[in-house]
TrEMBL record:
Coiled coil: none annotated. PROSITE patterns: ABC_TRANSPORTER_1, ABC_TRANSPORTER_2. InterPro entries: AAA+_ATPase, ABC_transporter-like_ATP-bd, ABC_transporter-like_CS, P-loop_NTPase. Belongs to the ABC transporter superfamily. It holds the Pfam family ABC_tran. Residues 1-24 are annotated as: Disordered. Residues 13-24 have a biased composition (Low complexity). This is ABC-2 type transport system ATP-binding protein. It comes from the Bacteria. It comes from Nonomuraea wenchangensis. One of its GO terms (molecular function) is ATP binding. Signal peptide: none annotated. Residues 30-258 form the ABC transporter domain. Residues 1-12 have a biased composition (Polar residues).
Amino acid sequence: MTPVTVTGTTQEAGAPFGAAPPAGDSSAAIVTRGLTKRFRGGQVAVDALDLTVPRGSVYGFLGPNGSGKTTTIRMLLGLITPTAGTYDVLGLPPARALPRVGALVEGPAFYPYLSGEANLMRFDAADPSARRATARRRIADALDRVGLSAAAGKRYRNYSLGMRQRLAIAAALLGPRELLILDEPTNGLDPQGTREVRALVKEIAADGTTVFVSSHLLAEIEQMCTHAAIMRSGRLVVQGTIGSLSAGRVPLIRVETPDVAEAARVLGELGLSGVQAGAGELTAELGGQRPEMINAALVGQEVAVRGLAVVRPSLEDVFVGLTGEGFDVDG
Ligand SMILES: Nc1ncnc2c1ncn2[C@@H]1O[C@H](COP(=O)(O)OP(=O)(O)OP(=O)(O)O)[C@@H](O)[C@H]1O
């Protein structure tokens, strides 16, 4: 795929926030340079990836299924070895940084008949680097952080889906963490569980922890994240703040009306460009116009306005605009 220029930078330059930080730069939570994974069969799952994850961000790592998100996360956590490229975590070589990184990749298997607290005890006991003397306090803190203190003694099998996932995140927070890496944390959750996890991610970030979270759901990343990178077929399409990603795309006004032809004429007279008529509605580029003035002009010309809305460009629009393809979650 041809690298795409967005906000004055290119994928190949790998520098959406300016020049890629030098090795050891601690202002970024994660920096990858040319990170590549080719599996034995020859498949390139991640191709020359240049990511810069600012500290303090909630960084959405977005891409259709199979676009290389989990492979990237597994490399960042030292679970698989890159074929090429380098990366720093918290300004350090990865092995030194990992004790300060919490991760949720394929949730831990919990015992259904044990309480949430007892499960965390077992989980912590299996970690040779965890200090026994501080286990109770660390577990209480982690349960408090994910809002499970009141349910600490309840059996895991009686937890809701959202509570189960919050417990899995608590397991990733048993030590002091500067960076939390979550691989598709809302996958398989019901709407309530999804809301709980989204709210929790924001709370964790508000405490100063950088959160790197993967998802194949565009709307989820838009709601939860300050920054995003979009992957496609192992390659980075674009990265930046959520605002900057859609900054180049203009807001639209959408008018619902039975008088489509007449409404199109009025919008044209107002000087709006890009007027597109559909069944019972039409859209146009808002330009510098105020929506209330557009509404007044339509009503003044006796157009029956059933609905009028300003439509901000979504990440999906950004993806489609850059790749010319729909964002297909089935990869
Ligand atoms: N161990 C492996 N051996 C060979 N190919 C692999 C391996 N793991 C992943 N792949 C392939 O690499 C590509 C990227 O997979 P990856 O799991 O990283 O994508 P993803 O974006 O996380 O998608 P999903 O959300 O579906 O897991 C896919 O085509 C996948 O089939």
